[in-house]
Each structure stands twice: as structure tokens, then as C-alpha cells.
Structure to design on (441 residues):
């Protein structure tokens, strides 16, 4: 019922025309219904709905299935199509990119860019927000303030404001010049989309007093390897693996070279997880082998990390096991940088939220001093601040990274090589950025 009024009219028409004793009064009601039905473009409703479903990757054979018969990932697409159908005046979207594949996300971005009415969206996908949004509504200090521009502009301007707030002695004229230079740079980098043009006009009117520092806290994420890697990094040799009768990996081979930060893509999510488990030594391959260089130490971020927290330890006790310096003061200070301050560092790990567990695993990885990082969907459960900090930490890391993530911005800014494992077993391996691989801006 994406357009409830249209749906109700269709049902009312069906009921009237099905009457065995169709009266003159019924005819008058039906005529009014037909008139409104035409105004709502009802005659094209079926074809419009079919086009939306097709564009979101729902095959025509599934268009008339019951929702209970649909796979979970396709249910999300149907619900999204329901929201988009009927050209609503205001479109409210709560994390619309969750569980969508890359193709569907790209289609949604283009749909919203061309959408003529109001869109209010909540999303942790920074690339999506940058592409779609003309304004950012920031809920901070107990208030909502609307800023012109996309997510990057809001984030960088808030950081600039924080920096200027610390520089109390700097003259106002110098601060205004700094802001003007910042806006000019952002305007120059804008694409030619309608959103970018609209943003540019608004940005040029901003006054210094309008930019406020953010009250948000960002964890400190910095992976420092204990030793530099040698020339031999990692060889994946002819790896095959079958799980529950399904062959997920079929003779997979690739070498990791110095400086590689590799994003692994796959149509099947389980393919990536099984490959990472094998590389991390948590799962044995049916065939093939994993050969690590003698100078390489690795640490692994699993997609499902619950098994790491099946203990009655508190956060400090749990992390101390992975620290070369077991001193509680050192561990507590480290946890403080990861936003576990005061009593939060004494919480039992088996009652932590998903985001808190992720911050614990990232802390464990940082303490390892490894020069090879493996991440399986590390942004799951994280808030925007933690995602931003993780992104920066991965960019700065001087060793090798093998990762997979649904976060477009993180993948684009970290990866310098893409390995894409197709359902037919084909492996595409290219030394390009994510956007270059996808062929998008």
C-alpha cells in the first residue's frame, strides 16, 4: 500500500463492480471513484510498481509472491519500493541502504537525486549522504540545527569550528578568511549535480557565527605495527572450500604485495567470511594452502564476534589478556581513548552492545601490533563517529589490509586493489580504487 488512497479506491471499485444488484447510486459512486483513480494515475499503477521492483532487483516472477515467501534481503527491497511508490510529498527513510546490494544502492541514489519532493533520511552511509543530501540536520547539545551542504562539509566545518574555538587569540578576521577559503575549496570540489549546485549557492552565504563545534566524541583508532613487513607478505594458493554441500571457494589464488590494501567483493556474503576465516587460520580449506611471509603478523576482525565475549570478565580484564603491558592503569587509559571511561571499563563483556563489542575488538587489534589487518564488515553496529575514526585509522595504517565492507566511503578511501569473487567462480583482480572499479564518480 505505497499509495494508500489509490489502494483503497481500487478495493472500493472492485467491491462495487462485484455487486449482483448494481444500482444507479452505485454507478454514481463508481464514476467518482474512476475520476479520482485517473487523477492518481491509477491506470499506470501496475506498470509503475513493476518498474520500481525491477529497478531494485526483484525479478518479475517474484512480483506476485506473498511477502512471507520472499527472502529477507528482497523483503527490504519491496518495503523500500512501497515507500517510493506514488510520488509522496515527504519521503522518510530510516537506514535505507542497510541490506541493499551495491547496484540497488546506486539506483536509489540516482532516484533520490532526481526526486522533486522532500527527503528526510537517517543513514550511516557517508557516501550516500554526500551524494543525496543538500542539508544536514545535526542533533547536538540537545538541539537540532540544519546546516547547508553534504555530510563531508558538515563534518569538516564542525572540525574547523572546534579548531577555531581552541584558538581563542586568533583574530576574527583571520577566522573568517579561514572559513572563506574552506568554503571556496568545498565549492570547487562540488560535482555538477543539482544537489551540488544548490549546496554551492547556500554555502556562499554562510557566516562565521553559524558554524559551531560538535559535541560528539570520536574514539582514537590508530593501528601501529611493531615491525615493518618484508617483501613476502601472503600467498593464497588454490584454496577451495565447500560448506553444507555448497562450493563457496573454487581454486582461489592471489598474492598480497607490499602496500596492498585489498577490498574483497562477492555476490555471496558467506564467500567472503569463509575466505577470511581460512586466511586467519580459524578454518581449514578443503584444498590449497595459505602461506604467510616470515615477517608478517596478522590480526582478525570477525563478522560475528560473539564467541570472543562468552566470559564473565569485565572490559578491563578482557582487554588485559591481549596487552603486552598488563598494568591496569595502561589498559584503562587505552580504553578511555576508545570511549570506555570510568565505570564503563568495568562492565561485563557479555552484556555489551554490538557497537561496544566492536570497539573492544578494534582495541584488541590495535594492541596486537600486527602488520597485516583482516576486517570482515567492521562498520556493522558502529555509529558515525566510530566509523569515521576507523576509516581514518585504516587509511593511515602503513601495513597491509584485507577487508570487506558495505561502507562505500571507507572502501573507496582505503582500498587500492579490488578482488571480486563472482558466483560462477570467476575472480576479478584489479589494482584500482573502488569507484574506478564500479565506474562511478
Amino acid at each position: 500500500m505505497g499509495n494508500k488512497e489509490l489502494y483503497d479506491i481500487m478495493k472500493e471499485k472492485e467491491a462495487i463492480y462485484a455487486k449482483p444488484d448494481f444500482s444507479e447510486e452505485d454507478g454514481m459512486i463508481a464514476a467518482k471513484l474512476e475520476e479520482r483513480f485517473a487523477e492518481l494515475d491509477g491506470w499506470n499503477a501496475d506498470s509503475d510498481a513493476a518498474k520500481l521492483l525491477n529497478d531494485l532487483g526483484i525479478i518479475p516472477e517474484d512480483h506476485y509472491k506473498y511477502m512471507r515467501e520472499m527472502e529477507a534481503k528482497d523483503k527490504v527491497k519491496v518495503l523500500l519500493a512501497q515507500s517510493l511508490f506514488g510520488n509522496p510529498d515527504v519521503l522518510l527513510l530510516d537506514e535505507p541502504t542497510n541490506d541493499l546490494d551495491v547496484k540497488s544502492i546506486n539506483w536509489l541514489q540516482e532516484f533520490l537525486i532526481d526526486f522533486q519532493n522532500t527527503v528526510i533520511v537517517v543513514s550511516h552511509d557517508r557516501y550516500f549522504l554526500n551524494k543525496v543530501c543538500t542539508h544536514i540536520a545535526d542533533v547536538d547539545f540537545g538541539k537540532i540545527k540544519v546546516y547547508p551542504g553534504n555530510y563531508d562539509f558538515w563534518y569538516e566545518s564542525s572540525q574547523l569550528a572546534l579548531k577555531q574555538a581552541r584558538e581563542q587569540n586568533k583574530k576574527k578576521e583571520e577566522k573568517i578568511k579561514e572559513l572563506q577559503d574552506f568554503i571556496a575549496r568545498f565549492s570547487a570540489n562540488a560535482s555538477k549535480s543539482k544537489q551540488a549546485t544548490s549546496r554551492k549557492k547556500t554555502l556562499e552565504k554562510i557566516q562565521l557565527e553559524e558554524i559551531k563545534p560538535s559535541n560528539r566524541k570520536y574514539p582514537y583508532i590508530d593501528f601501529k605495527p611493531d615491525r615493518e613487513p618484508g617483501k613476502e607478505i601472503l600467498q593464497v594458493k588454490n584454496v577451495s572450500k565447500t560448506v553444507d554441500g555448497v562450493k563457496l571457494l573454487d581454486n582461489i589464488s592471489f598474492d598480497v604485495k607490499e602496500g596492498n590494501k585489498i577490498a574483497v567483493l562477492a555476490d555471496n556474503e558467506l564467500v567472503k567470511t569463509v575466505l577470511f576465516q581460512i586466511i586467519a587460520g580459524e578454518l581449514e580449506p578443503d584444498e590449497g594452502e595459505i602461506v604467510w611471509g616470515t615477517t608478517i603478523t596478522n590480526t582478525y576482525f570477525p563478522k560475528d564476534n560473539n564467541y570472543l565475549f562468552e566470559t564473565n570478565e569485565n572490559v578491563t580484564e578482557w582487554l588485559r589478556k591481549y596487552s603486552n603491558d598488563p598494568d591496569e592503569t595502561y589498559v584503562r587509559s587505552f580504553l578511555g581513548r576508545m570511549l570506555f571511561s570510568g565505570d564503563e571499563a568495568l562492565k561485563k563483556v557479555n552484556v555489551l552492545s554490538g557497537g561496544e563489542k566492536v570497539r573492544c575488538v578494534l582495541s584488541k587489534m590495535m594492541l596486537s601490533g600486527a602488520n597485516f589487518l583482516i576486517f570482515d564488515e567492521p562498520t556493522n553496529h558502529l555509529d558515525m563517529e566510530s566509523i569515521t575514526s576507523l576509516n581514518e585509522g585504516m587509511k593511515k595504517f602503513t601495513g597491509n589490509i584485507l577487508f570487506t565492507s558495505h561502507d562505500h566511503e571507507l572502501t573507496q578511501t582505503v582500498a587500492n586493489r579490488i578482488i571480486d569473487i563472482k558466483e560462477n567462480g570467476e575472480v576479478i583482480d584489479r589494482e584500482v580504487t573502488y569507484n574506478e572499479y564500479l565506474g562511478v564518480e
Summary: The first strand starts at residue 90 and ends at 94. The chain has a mean pLDDT of 87. The CA atoms of residues 51 and 60 lie 9 Å apart.
